[in-house]
Design a protein that fits this description.
Layout: E1 3-11, E2 13-21, E3 44-46, E4 52-59, E5 68-77, E6 81-84, E7 92-93, H1 96-100, E8 101-102, E9 105-106, E10 111-112, E11 124-130, E12 144-152, E13 159-161, E14 166-169, E15 178-187, E16 191-200, E17 205-215, E18 221-230, H2 246-251, H3 253-259, E19 262-264, E20 267-269, H4 279-283, H5 294-317, H6 331-341, H7 347-353, H8 355-363, H9 386-391
Antiparallel strand pairs: 1-2, 3-4, 4-5, 5-16, 6-7, 6-10, 8-9, 11-15, 11-17, 12-16, 13-15, 14-15, 17-18, 19-20
Helix pairs in contact: 5-7, 5-8, 6-8
Length: 415
């Protein structure tokens, strides 16, 4: 029996798509996750197709009917390598096969030292991420799925991708469970595609999922097992939680660089350069950066620090700070609530939301769940405030990076 499912994609404007899906009992591609467990599941891997793919962000939906879970994936074409070969010594290479022959000469032991190198490399046609079938799974029949596809860094000559995620079925495997897809025109070595997928109105979570790269030349489908939207959710990473204040992150840029980028109010911040949409600009502000709305600056700084803390906790312990609560909400609940309600709000709304207080309480809480502080936090070194000081009062805030800066008062759009 067929189910009619409403799925929505948005990039600037909403595109409404109706899909008819056949219930497959939702299985992933054959053997891709066989033998894998939540404990052995990697968040970053080299695909057998020669690409580096990773889940770079996951924000669970808050406990409300309109909560939205966010999943961000990155697929990268690593920079070219050099041949370790007797017939093509030091030549630039995409794959091993190029390095093994040169005219009549061969070197069967030659290889390309490119990251994630494979024997035969092909360019990408598209990148797919599977998710449970709405109506026959933990997702409801009218589940909204939104998505965007972006190049990183941005260079249309080297990287070109359709801006919106396209929804479809997993035709690679002759099955009808749905996928979110980024269609790719160009992806040069050293460039990445960022896919952000949001599943609204549902409380699901991360489990064993399939991320698929599809070759342009032969349309070969190469799946890999990564954390992804799933009904069989892995347990959260336990009680471990490492937290530092926004002041620590702002004055230890070498450590912050290990755990960015983070997406704050839909703006990707990365790096420590003052004068750019960087982590330093998000963390280090004073009233001169947005005189009409100082609470916005405080909110963004605490939100940025909270996301760095969660990134560090996940990287070091596979933890999620899941024992921390403030007024009955987890830090993930607060982040989802605050980004929904405060990113585009005026000072009154932000001041009354409780977001600054909740995120500050999280960032100033105690480490939990481990006995020995891990590097680099055990010996962080002296504070380096230079970039932070340059960022303060220079008139830049991450709202300048978005299409519109947040309003000065509680009525959006007023100055």
């Amino acid at each position: 029996m067929k189910k009619r499912v409403v799925l929505r994609l948005s990039l600037m404007t909403a595109l409404l798509i109706m899909l008819t899906l056949v219930a497959p009992g939702w299985a992933q591609d054959g053997d891709v996750c066989n033998g894998m467990t939540c404990e052995t599941l990697e968040e970053e891997i080299c695909s057998p197709a020669g690409f580096k793919i990773s889940l770079t962000k996951y924000v669970p939906a808050d406990l409300s009917p309109d909560g939205t879970a966010t999943y961000e994936y990155k697929v990268c074409s690593p920079p070219l390598g050099h041949c370790v070969s007797t017939v093509r010594p030091d030549a630039y290479c995409y794959d091993n096969s190029f390095c093994r022959s040169n005219g009549q000469e061969t070197d069967p032991n030659a290889y390309c030292n490119r990251e994630c190198a494979v024997d035969t490399f092909t360019y990408l046609s598209h990148f797919d991420v599977t998710f449970p079938e709405p109506g026959n799974s933990c997702l409801g029949e009218s589940t909204f799925v939104t998505g965007t596809c972006l190049c990183s860094p941005t260079d249309p000559e080297a990287c070109d991708v359709d801006g919106i995620v396209v929804l479809g079925d997993a035709s690679c495997f002759g099955m009808d469970y749905p996928v979110a897809r980024c269609n790719i025109e160009r992806l040069a070595p050293g460039y990445c595609i960022i896919m952000e997928m949001k599943i609204a109105g549902e409380i699901n979570g991360l489990g064993l999922g399939a991320a698929v790269v599809v070759g342009a030349a032969d349309t070969a489908c190469t799946p890999s097992c990564l954390p992804g939207p799933s009904c069989a959710v892995c347990e959260e990473g336990g009680p471990a939680c490492l937290v530092r204040t926004h002041g620590f992150w702002g004055t230890h840029p070498h450590i912050a660089a290990m755990y960015d980028p983070v997406t704050v109010c839909d703006v990707r911040v990365e790096g420590q350069d003052a004068g750019k949409c960087s982590t330093s600009e998000a963390l280090c502000t004073n009233a001169n950066d947005y005189k009409q709305n100082p609470p916005y600056l405080s909110f963004v700084a605490q939100l940025t620090a909270a996301k760095l803390n969660l990134n560090a906790t996940r990287a070091l312990f596979k933890g999620s700070c899941n024992t921390w609560e403030y007024q009955g909400k987890s830090v993930q609940d607060w982040i989802s609530y605050c980004e929904t309600n405060s990113c585009s709000a005026g000072k009154q709304v932000i001041g009354q939301s409780g977001c600054i207080e909740a995120l500050t309480a999280f960032n100033e809480s105690q480490d939990t769940g481990f006995d020995v502080t891990p590097p680099p936090f055990d010996r962080p070194g002296p504070a380096d405030p230079d970039q932070c000081q340059d960022a303060r009062g220079n008139g830049i805030n991450i709202g300048n990076c978005a299409e519109e800066a947040p309003p000065a008062d509680h009525q959006k759009g007023k100055k």
